[in-house]
User: What shape does this take?
Amino acid sequence: MRFLIILVAIVCLAALIITLSLTKAEDTNYSSNRSVKNQLIMYLILIPFIALILVLGWMFLY
Assistant: This one.
């Protein structure tokens, strides 16, 4: 249980650091269509990838 809490804390900290570093730069070519496309890519690729890593980690631990 402690391992999972530590893992969640590390993931949240990494997400915070990445978010803060990305928001420093101003995007002059911003458009809502581009933003929606980026979010779609994130939800379709990154979240299943992270879930796969967590499942594999869970399988190897137990």
Summary: The mean pLDDT is 86. Residues 34-62 form one domain. Helices lie at 2-22, 32-61. The two ends are 12 Å apart (CA to CA).
